Amino acid sequence: MVKAVVLGAAGGIGQPLSLLLKLNPDVTELGLYDIVNAPGVAADLAHIATPAKVEGYLKDDDGLQKVLTGADVVVIPAGIPRKPGMSRDDLFKTNAGIVRDLATGIATTAPNASVLVISNPVNSTVPIVAEVFKKHGVFDPKRIFGVTTLDVVRASTFVSEILGDRSLATSIAVPVVGGHSGVTIVPLLSQSSHPLPPGFGGSDLEALVKHIQFGGDEVVKAKGTGSATLSMAYAGAEFANKVILALKGKKGIVAPTFVHLAADKAGGEALKKEIGTDLEYFSAPVELGPNGVEKIGGIGKITGAEKALIAAALPDLKVNIDKGVSFIEAPK
Ligand code: NAD
Ligand code: LMR
Predict the structure, then answer these.
(1) Which residues have C-beta within 8 Å of that of residue 317, sequence separation ≥ 6?
(2) Ligand 2 centroid vs 213 CA: distance in angstroms?
(3) Ligand 1 centre and the CA of 269: distance in Å?
(4) Could you report the per-residue pLDDT of 8-23, keeping only the tens digit for each?
(5) How many CB atoms neighbour CB 36 within 10 A?
(6) What is the pTM of this model?
(7) What count of other Cβ atoms lies within 10 Å of the Cβ of residue 151?
(8) Domain named Lactate/malate dehydrogenase N-terminal: which ranges (predicted)?
(9) CB-facing half-sphere around the CA of 286: CA atoms within 13 A
């Protein structure tokens, strides 16, 4: 029995993500929550002939508490998206408070659930969830994840295009580490399961890295009114499905995700040494298990250029993480 909950379920990501979770036969209960339209979305999805029982709640009548009761996995795509000209950090002002309030609900009603944070800026919203959980005395770093899967999905897609065979896209795996915004997104293309063509390098490689780092900006520019929703729903469901499979006992599932490095003390400390940082959060390849993070993997062998990308990511990451942490101490 697995209860999955989507907070922000009526939004651009929330609706297709809820659809994809409804299609997962391992989900037996699907709880939807939003400040608008969640009961309607639930009524619609409830007619799909898959096992999950679907319920939708609004804020009134303790909707958040009701939806979170018994939750095993909570996915959070609630909050405003970017418009052209905005950075993810520009969303902090609005989304930090939304995520804080939702995290408070989870800490009090479903403290043992795995929490998958999609709301931007992920580099700050994950520390916000963690700090709220600390305040409530229920912090378990193994169960809080920043969803960076869209960067991994983009990397696979773009590499398949360069290899001239899109049918490879689903089997190509490229670790993407660091965080989820601009230069904090660090694709380790030298570790691609399917190597780039011989001689691919220089400005072509730099352009590919930028394409992955700023893929979100491309979508924001093309849409003009918001950011990636459908590809994010796909990526969010991919990651949630992995968390659910691991919860049910499947071994050996590894995915990059933005976590508190205390989630695996030995792995986290080794990673800090490897990249030369004392940051508390980083997106790394994580092995998932029934209790969430099982093992934080290292970076492994990378090129000099990739080392430089990691070094360039660290200052921004620090600023983003500190901002999230201090928001709970000193809300603005
Ligand atoms: P959207 O505006 O279409 O949907 C957001 C939903 O959140 C809306 O339905 C809104 O009513 C709801 N909401 C707002 N406040 C709420 C609250 N307090 N409780 C519950 N629900 C609330 O936006 P979207 O395009 O779905 O994007 C959502 C978030 O996801 C944005 O912050 C965006 O930047 C982020 N995002 C992250 C990634 C990633 O890779 N992690 C990718 C794409 C988008
Ligand atoms: C993305 O990478 O598409 C998301 O983080 C949304 C955005 O603002 O770019």
Answers:
(1) 123, 178, 179, 184, 279, 281, 282
(2) 10
(3) 33
(4) 999 999 999 999 999 9
(5) 12
(6) 0.98
(7) 27
(8) 3-146
(9) 36
